[in-house]
Amino acid sequence: MSSTELEQIRVRITELDSQLLELLAERQQLTNQVAETKIKNSIPVRDQKREEQLLIRLIKQGKKHNLDAQYVTQLFHVILEDSVLNQQAMLAARANPETSLSVNRVAFLGNKGTYSYLAAQKYFSRRAGELLEIGCQSFSEIIKKVENDEADYAVLPIENTSSGSINEVYDQLQLTHLSVVGELTHPIQHTLLVHKNTDISKIKTLYAHPQVFAQCSHFLAELGNVEVIPCESSSAAMIKVAEQDSDTIAAIGSESGGNLYGLHGIKSNLANQKENHSRFFVVAKQAVNVPLQVPAKTTLVMSTVQKAGALVDALMVLRDNNINMTKLESRPITGNPWEEMFYIDVEGNVQDGPMQNALETLTAMARTFKVLGCYPIEEINPTKVAAVSALAD
């Protein structure tokens, strides 16, 4: 094949890519019209039976065009997830008109390039209004920015699949009156970042946030005799490397974040667990109203009376109301040695009858009890198609 023929093929591919984008935009506009109908008629956002039927039809159509069933399934999982999240955002905006701001002031840990920064970008990409980023140096500073009306929202990492819960954030949630209004899960892809081209064997000093070091402990053990210096954020670690301009120092963070500081990656996938994700809370002064058509979670915090089986009795209330608990976390109560505060995530909307029954019962039986927030579920589980491989045969 000559270079001229190759260029002609590439031109045609570029044309097709443009057409695909136009069609995806048109599809998104149509799904927004569907959302309008769901709002008017109180229809749930997701219809997984219809999603399964759609995927089966598309897999069969794809087979006629020699397209692999897994390829078609993965492609439309992404498209359907985007559709669901856009519809949820539309319904949430309609239910909470006071939250539609021309500018969303968002506080997060560190400066541009941190994982919290990337999570904020991702979450607010589906919300109306410009994004004004407010970098902070500590979780307490982030909380105070919102409490003092210097920010509208805060984005806080709450747990990681590798290093577990971020206890400092849970402790901050004990002390604030802010409400959890959203959540998101963001993939964490740790990369070794340098300013000058170098070999890993030459690196003598490594900067990162302590949570990052915990998530990459196996890689650190392989490095051997390297000085590990904790920083208050991933961006602070990147700035250290960019300022020193040495081939013996490196930072660990996201490659896209490092690019903002002129750094580039020399080794990726450093986390102990290759499927490494962090969950973030979005908090604000005012709670939000989650439409019943939207799948919701509720985060509770409570302390129980000091007697045997008190926590079990509380959890039985959830079971008796057919409420699924997705997380249970305990933290010491500040100023009360040996007493614990329990954070509980459940699937359910505070407007639902079963949830209201459970909340009323728990309020009466717990020593202290508070709803930290009810918010839309942002993690969309893909609809599974039975026997995808059989359909492709």
Automatic annotation (TrEMBL):
<dbReference type="InterPro" id="IPR001086">
    <property type="entry name" value="Preph_deHydtase"/>
</dbReference>
<keyword id="KW-0175">Coiled coil</keyword>
<dbReference type="Pfam" id="PF01817">
    <property type="entry name" value="CM_2"/>
</dbReference>
<keyword id="KW-0028">Amino-acid biosynthesis</keyword>
<feature type="coiled-coil region">
    <location>
        <begin position="6"/>
        <end position="40"/>
    </location>
</feature>
<keyword id="KW-0456">Lyase</keyword>
<comment type="pathway">
    <text>Metabolic intermediate biosynthesis; prephenate biosynthesis; prephenate from chorismate: step 1/1.</text>
</comment>
<feature type="domain" description="Prephenate dehydratase">
    <location>
        <begin position="105"/>
        <end position="285"/>
    </location>
</feature>
<dbReference type="Pfam" id="PF00800">
    <property type="entry name" value="PDT"/>
</dbReference>
<feature type="domain" description="ACT">
    <location>
        <begin position="299"/>
        <end position="376"/>
    </location>
</feature>
<feature type="domain" description="Chorismate mutase">
    <location>
        <begin position="1"/>
        <end position="91"/>
    </location>
</feature>
<comment type="function">
    <text>Catalyzes the Claisen rearrangement of chorismate to prephenate and the decarboxylation/dehydration of prephenate to phenylpyruvate.</text>
</comment>
<keyword id="KW-0511">Multifunctional enzyme</keyword>
<dbReference type="InterPro" id="IPR002701">
    <property type="entry name" value="CM_II_prokaryot"/>
</dbReference>
<dbReference type="InterPro" id="IPR018528">
    <property type="entry name" value="Preph_deHydtase_CS"/>
</dbReference>
<dbReference type="InterPro" id="IPR036979">
    <property type="entry name" value="CM_dom_sf"/>
</dbReference>
<dbReference type="GO" id="GO:0004664">
    <property type="term" value="F:prephenate dehydratase activity"/>
</dbReference>
<dbReference type="InterPro" id="IPR002912">
    <property type="entry name" value="ACT_dom"/>
</dbReference>
<keyword id="KW-0057">Aromatic amino acid biosynthesis</keyword>
<dbReference type="InterPro" id="IPR008242">
    <property type="entry name" value="Chor_mutase/pphenate_deHydtase"/>
</dbReference>
<keyword id="KW-0413">Isomerase</keyword>
<keyword id="KW-0963">Cytoplasm</keyword>
<keyword id="KW-0584">Phenylalanine biosynthesis</keyword>
<dbReference type="InterPro" id="IPR036263">
    <property type="entry name" value="Chorismate_II_sf"/>
</dbReference>
<protein>
    <recommendedName>
        <fullName>Bifunctional chorismate mutase/prephenate dehydratase</fullName>
        <ecNumber>4.2.1.51</ecNumber>
        <ecNumber>5.4.99.5</ecNumber>
    </recommendedName>
</protein>
<dbReference type="InterPro" id="IPR045865">
    <property type="entry name" value="ACT-like_dom_sf"/>
</dbReference>
<comment type="pathway">
    <text>Amino-acid biosynthesis; L-phenylalanine biosynthesis; phenylpyruvate from prephenate: step 1/1.</text>
</comment>
<dbReference type="InterPro" id="IPR010952">
    <property type="entry name" value="CM_P_1"/>
</dbReference>
